[in-house]
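Trying the structure run again after the queue cleared.
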Amino acid sequence: MTTLGIIGAGHIGSQVARASIAQGYDVVISNSRGPETLTDLVAELGPKARAGTPQQAATAADIAVVTVPMGAIPSIPVEPLAGKIVIDTNNYYWERDGHIAELDDKSLTVSQYLQRHLPESKVAKGFNHIGSPDITTDGTPAGTPNRRALATSSDFPEAAEAVTKLYDELGFDTVNVGPLAESWRVERDTPAYVSRQNAEELTANLAIATRHPDANSGHAAG
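Done. Tokens:
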């Protein structure tokens, strides 16, 4: 069975773990404070989950999920993620993360920033524009009318396909935004951000997004 290595055990990471385990995945979950701080979470998640360090989660991963504040990106292990698909759930909140020049001036998207840190990995955007509680409650079977859709984006087709497969298993349709350079269309303060949309609505919201030069607005969600 596929193992997800989750780096970051906050709201999104723990919810992706819950939803994925329910679909039969194995999970190695980590945070910056050490595996011993995840005892209660792993007990809740059950026998298909174990805690580890970020290095251990990255090494064990068939697919990795990076879900940390942007300021923690430089600490993400690089070598054990080489050649692997890495799902980037991150959002840039300068109020929390401090200012990052390339994100402020829009020369990089959030996912391009992670891809630069992981040059041998295959980064794909995922789970960044859904409130964490909805990950385990909004999923519905394929073909359900008005099924909720989520976006992905990658420079690697196989990475986007992996996110699409995971989304479908967890109960969501997928809209592929295209390369990471276009992933800003689902970042904070865009019409697609943290809004329940079906595939048609999400496609329309991605199309009308505009990239404002000023990153210093908006508010953190979930």
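Strands lie at 3-7, 26-30, 49-52, 63-66, 85-88, 122-125, 149-154, 173-176. Worth checking whether this holds up in the mutant runs.
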